[in-house]
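Workshop exercise sheet. Pairs work together: one partner reads the sequence aloud, the other fills in the structure field after running the prediction. Swap roles for the next sheet.
Pair: D.N. / O.F.
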Amino acid sequence: MDTPPSWHTGASTPDEHSFTPFSRPETPETANDFVLVVGGLGYIGSHTSWELLKAGFNVIIVDNLSNSFRSVRDRLEHLRVKYYQSQVLQPTLDFYEADYRDQRTMRAIVSKYSTQLETHQSKSTAGGNSTITGVIHFAAYKAVTESFQKPLDYYANNVAGMIDFCALLNEFSIKTLVFSSSATVYGELANKGGRLLEEYCDSSSCRGLTSPYGRTKWMCEAILNDIAVSDPEWTVIALRYFNPIGCDESGMLGEDPRDTPNNLMPIVVKVMTGELPVLNIYGSDWDTVDGTAIRDFVHVSDLARGHLAALNAKEKLGRGFKTFNLGTGTGHSVKEVVASMERVSGRAIPTNTVGRRDGDVAICMAEPSKSLISLGWIRQKTLDDCCRDICRFLNLDVQSAEAWS
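Structure field:
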């Protein structure tokens, strides 16, 4: 069934106009420009598409629905109409169901936005022949555990697919790309302790990669760097995600993958709501305060705003390939995440300790100062905020800390 659980069109949107730090200046030259978002109906992709729309960008979403739902597009349209209901000029939202690796279909889609075909539209500010002035790439497979089981699928989609996609963008002179990378590129460097700096891993070498998934992300970064070196017209910004959780405060967008979830929070939610009997904690003997692994959890809406910050900073950053961490700089253990969700939801979450998983590390935290300085980006939301917004998406009552204690 193409409908994720319990969403409500009548949901209130608290403070939806109170924080819009990233917006583009609207001019006659940019009114017809678009941002192409591949994988734009997925968890991070849909939240980024929504932040783009709020900031006034026209958005084109391409998604093959392999791990998302068509109804997410309907939610985005509902949010867009509601947000701009009193305004005459509104950004547009175009959606195409397609695989970004399908060259024939993608060429047909991108051609629709070519200035050579639509001469009345504005010329791209990037100097190309398309009204698509920026692209955000979310179309990778992303499960660490699955990447051990299906490495060829991961290399084919994540690496070979990106190469063909970039060749198509180059054909249309679309040379501004924000790439969804991952903290997994740091591999075993995470075990050295402390916050991870971008320079710990670059396009020439990265030691101790712990999964095929992490290797695909590093390979893509290396390829994108080579593209930018070979052609100085390219601007490529790779955003290394840490652990996105939470959902939009409207309660209409959230994490609801078609596939079996591998990340912590979706499993916590399934245990909390009774879909799973118990949460397996992978290892209680890590060298951490409570023995469980520590991760840098960042609210998905904060993460989404990081993509807007990257697009808006492209002129300041200049051409070439750049990497930025998107994380909070603060780690939380698995037990702390469980405790926060229990506190906010008022529900007990049964846990069971099992052995460690292949590819896991003890601690993984970002050093986010480069993103603050160069992108003007900083996280706004706390771990408890993440849990509250998840409960809102699930239509669960949010408990006060006093009630739980």
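Discussion prompt: Residues 1-22, 117-127, 400-405 have pLDDT under 50 and may be disordered. What would you look at next?
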